[in-house]
Design goal:
The protein has helices at residues 16-22, 40-53, 67-79, 82-97, 158-169, 188-197, 219-229, 243-266, and strands at residues 106-115, 124-126, 131-141, 146-153, 178-182, 200-204. With 271 residues, the protein is an alpha/beta fold. The chain has a domain at 102-207 and 214-238: Nucleotidyltransferase, domain 5 (2-Layer Sandwich), CATH 3.30.420. A hairpin with a 4-residue loop joins strand 2 and strand 3 (131-141). It starts with 15 loop residues before the first helix and ends in a 5-residue tail after the last helix.
Length: 271
């Protein structure tokens, strides 16, 4: 079903073309029981509104489904792996549209430390960035599309946090052979990646003779991904109680980005 919502649309709402892209990857509705009152399209619209606007669940506009219903689906899809599955499916589609292989042969690793709020949960202090909160460790492909994210306490050093990410990725991408990272990952991690994952970890360092800002080869790709995620105000800090919820929020933001990209590319060019 591709009908537009009857209410006035928000800029974050899925268009018909975007909904057609994402609908096939949503879980099938269980048979029997009470009929669903709100469409999955409207549930997604509400989640994307939360992500982009940065408001709390209870402040969802009244013309969207009730916040408890929306949160129920967001939590359910976090627990059953739906967010990761949709991210994987759409990433393969985007890569195919760009004429690339479905799975990457190279990836880029980086982390971002963000502050937390008074919400209880895992946190720590990143002495290097002087941030008390959590660290988002992401692995992206050469296009900047998300392969894996792990959220952990900011006090965990990059080399140790990288192991959490790479250990989850090992075995998922048969073509993956090379991972790029910055100087913070140098040292014993290079041998660990070779031994445990059978990949090459290539460290890209800044030139000592260059002062100020410097665009580093390959490293700018993952920085751009963090920039994309920065458009979603809910990710400006880590407001979530569980790191797993933070990871689901990041997957949802990437899904929103990719589905818009796919729908835009599919539009016919006017004569």
């Amino acid at each position: 079903m591709t009908e537009q919502p009857s209410r006035k649309m928000y800029s974050t709402d899925l268009t018909n073309a975007q909904w057609q892209r994402i609908e096939p990857y949503l879980p099938v509705s269980p048979t029997g029981g009470r009929p669903r009152l709100h469409s999955l399209r409207e549930i997604l619209n509400a989640i994307f509104y939360i992500l982009r606007a940065g408001c709390v669940w209870r402040l969802l506009p009244h013309d969207l489904p009730p916040w408890k219903t929306v949160y129920h689906y967001f939590r359910l899809w976090r627990m059953d792996g739906t967010w990761e599955a949709i991210n994987t499916a759409l990433r393969v589609e985007v890569r195919a549209k760009e004429g690339r292989e479905p799975e990457p042969s190279a990836a880029i690793l980086d982390s971002q430390s963000v502050k937390t709020t008074e919400v209880p949960g895992v946190r720590g202090y990143d002495a290097g960035k002087k941030v008390k909160g959590r660290k988002r460790h992401i692995l992206v492909d050469a296009m900047g599309l998300l392969l894996m994210v792990v959220v952990h306490a900011a006090s965990i050093q990059d080399r140790d946090g990288a192991k959490l990410v790479l250990a989850k990725v090992a075995g998922l991408f048969p073509r993956l052979q090379l991972v790029w990272a910055d100087g913070g990952y140098a040292g014993k991690l290079v041998d660990w990646v070779k031994t445990v994952c059978a990949w090459t970890l290539e460290i890209i360092k800044r030139s000592d003779g260059v002062k100020g800002f410097q665009v580093l080869p390959r490293r700018w790709v993952v920085e751009r991904t963090f920039g994309w995620l920065g458009r979603y105000r809910r990710l400006s800090k880590d407001y979530e109680g569980l790191p797993e919820t933070s990871e689901a929020m990041i997957y949802a933001a990437m899904i929103h980005l990719m589905v818009r990209r796919l729908a835009r590319r599919a539009q016919p060019v006017a004569a």
